[in-house]
Amino acid sequence: MSARFQELDWRRTPLGEIALRRRWYADVGKDVYEIKLNDEYLMSSLFTVAEVELGRLALKELAGTTDLDVVVGGLGLGCTAQAVLESADVRSLVVIDALGAVIEWHRRDLIPSGVAADPRCRLVEGDFFAMAQSPEGLDPEVADRRFHAIVVDIDHSPRHLLHPGNASFYEPAGLRRLSEQLHPGGVFALWSNDSPDQEFTDTLAGIFAEVRAEVVTFDNPLQHREAANTVYLARTAPAG
C-alpha cells in the first residue's frame, strides 16, 4: 500500500462489504475520501456540492424560523449534516444511518467531518426507511416526534434504490406518513443522482402543498465536464 492510497477500515455488514478509503488525487492536489459498498462507490469527497446544497436548500426554505429540529437520513461522509449544522438556527439534528461502521468512522474522526463532536447532533444507527414508516417515528428517544425538516440522501434516486425494500417510501402512502412527521410548513428534501423525474414530482404534489425539483450543477474534475444532480423540495401546508 503506497502513501497515495490507504484503506482506513473494512467491515462486513448486513448490506455487504463496506470500506473507507483515502486516496491522493494529484489532479486536484488533495486527499479524497471514498466509501465503497461491495463493488459500488457510495460516496467520494470529490463530489459533494449537491450533498451540501441539499442541506442548505432545505434550510433556506425555512428562512426566518429559529430553533429548528432536523433529521438527516444517511450519514455518508457527513456533508449534508455539516451543511445543516452550519446554521445557528438549528437546535437539534438527528442523523440516521443503517451502518454502524459509518457512524463509528465519524466518532473516531477517520472521516474528519466534525459532526459527531457537535453537541446539537445525535448519530443514530437504524434503518431510516423502516423508522420513517413506523408508528414511533424517526427519533428512537421521542415517539412520534415532529421536525421542521427531513433531509434524505440514501438511495441513488427514487427509481435506483440501494435495496428494493426502500421502494414503498417513495409511494404515496410512504410519503404521506413522512409528511405527518413534519411541522406545518415543514420541509422534505431529497437528493437524487438522476435528472428531475416528473412522475415522482407529481407524486410529491399529491401529498405536499408546495413541490419543486432543483438541478444542482458542479464540476467533475476527473472527466473534465459539468455534472448535475437533483434536489427535490416539498413543503407541508402552513398552520391555519
Quick synopsis:
The chain contains six helices and eleven strands. The protein is an alpha/beta fold and 240 residues long.
List the helices and strands and how they pair.
Blueprint: E1 5-13, E2 16-25, E3 30-37, E4 40-44, H1 49-60, E5 68-73, H2 79-85, E6 90-97, H3 100-107, E7 121-125, H4 128-133, E8 147-152, H5 172-179, E9 182-192, H6 198-205, E10 210-220, E11 225-235
Parallel strand pairs: 5-6, 5-8, 6-7, 8-9
Antiparallel strand pairs: 1-2, 2-3, 3-4, 9-11, 10-11
Helix pairs in contact: 1-2
For the secondary structure, the number of strands is 11
Percent helix range? 10-25%
The CATH class is identified as Alpha Beta
Q: What is the gyration radius calculated from CA atoms? A: 17 Å
Low-pLDDT parts are none
What is the CATH superfamily? Answer: Vaccinia Virus protein VP39
Strand coverage percent: 35-45%
Order of helices and strands: EEEEHEHEHEHEHEHEE
Question: How would you describe what is shown here?
Answer:
With 240 residues, this protein is of the alpha/beta class. It has one domain: Rossmann fold (3-Layer(aba) Sandwich). Helix content is 20%, strand content 38%. It contains six helices and eleven strands. Strand 2 and strand 3 (30-37) form a beta hairpin. The longest helix has 12 residues, at 49-60.
